[in-house]
């Protein structure tokens, strides 16, 4: 990497990125201990119900899996690629897997924690409420997919290809959108297509969140639920 990309880097600049990576690894290990040590303590004390034991095991397993994925991802950036003169970088596939597993871990942890702290609302299962729940699940999946597409943007440095919005350069649809063969490769390996997809998914996510908010206003919901939907819209606009 030093000879191919960063040959003009000073020792101070190298120390900066080294400490960033080192801090990330140490923080990840602290997070792992923050899961495993309390889990072992409360398990030993008999404080966990059988369903909660399953959740705790799954979360601890996800933490370990996340660390393993991180190592696997970094390894891809250190491998010598024969006959390749490209800029050294980690695999965008492994980066997306690392980010995706982190999002699953965070969401599962938050869901488990809130389920224990807050009582579940007993609401009548009306058609409108069922539709709202389905829309919320669909929006969640769309946001997750958008975040994963961001990992492909980062992994391929696709954000550097076009820096204008809403057009990409002078065109709405770039000429090299399907330059790779077979066509499916473009979705994951063509920087132009990856950036284009991320833009479309981002716009779709904000639209879905806005529609979810507007739909929720037509349904009588508890105050806590209304706050959650409003907060979701505010965060989506900020993002």
UniProtKB/TrEMBL annotation:
Lineage: Eukaryota, Metazoa, Chordata, Craniata, Vertebrata
Pfam families noted in UniProt: COX15-CtaA (PF02628)
Predominant location: membrane
Compartments reported by the entry: Membrane
Membrane topology: Multi-pass membrane protein
UniProt GO MF annotations: heme A synthase activity; metal ion binding; oxidoreductase activity, acting on NAD(P)H, heme protein as acceptor
Record-level GO cellular component terms: mitochondrial inner membrane
Annotated protein name in UniProt: COX15 protein
Keywords assigned by UniProt, alphabetized: Heme biosynthesis, Iron, Membrane, Metal-binding, Oxidoreductase, Transmembrane, Transmembrane helix
Transmembrane segments: 26-43, 55-74, 94-118, 139-162, 198-216
Cofactor(s) recorded in Swiss-Prot or TrEMBL: heme b
GO process terms (BP): heme A biosynthetic process
Reactions catalysed, as given in the entry: Fe(II)-heme o + 2 A + H2O = Fe(II)-heme a + 2 AH2
Domain of life: Eukaryota
UniProt pathway annotation: Porphyrin-containing compound metabolism; heme A biosynthesis; heme A from heme O: step 1/1
């Amino acid at each position: 990497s030093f000879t191919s990309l960063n040959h003009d880097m000073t020792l101070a600049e190298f120390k900066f990125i080294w400490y960033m990576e080192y801090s990330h690894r140490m923080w990840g290990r602290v997070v792992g201990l923050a899961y495993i040590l309390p889990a072992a303590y409360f398990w030993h004390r008999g404080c966990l119900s059988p369903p909660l034991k399953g959740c705790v095991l799954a979360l601890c397993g996800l933490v370990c899996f996340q660390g393993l994925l991180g190592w696997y991802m970094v390894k891809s950036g250190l491998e010598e690629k024969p006959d390749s003169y490209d800029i050294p970088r980690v695999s965008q596939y492994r980066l997306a897997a690392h980010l995706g597993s982190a999002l699953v871990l965070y969401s599962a942890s938050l869901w488990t924690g809130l389920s224990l702290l807050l009582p579940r609302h007993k609401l009548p299962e009306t058609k409108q409420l069922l539709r709202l729940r389905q829309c919320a699940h669909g929006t969640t999946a769309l946001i997750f997919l958008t975040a994963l597409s961001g990992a492909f943007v980062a992994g391929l440095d696709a954000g550097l290809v076009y820096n204008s919005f809403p057009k990409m350069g002078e065109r709405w649809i770039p000429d090299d959108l399907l330059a790779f063969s077979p066509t499916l490769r473009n979705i994951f390996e063509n920087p132009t297509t990856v950036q284009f997809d991320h833009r479309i998914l981002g716009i779709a996510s904000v639209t879905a969140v806005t529609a979810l908010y507007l739909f929720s206003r037509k349904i009588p919901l508890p105050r806590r639920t209304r706050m959650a939907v409003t907060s979701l819209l505010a965060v989506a606009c900020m993002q």
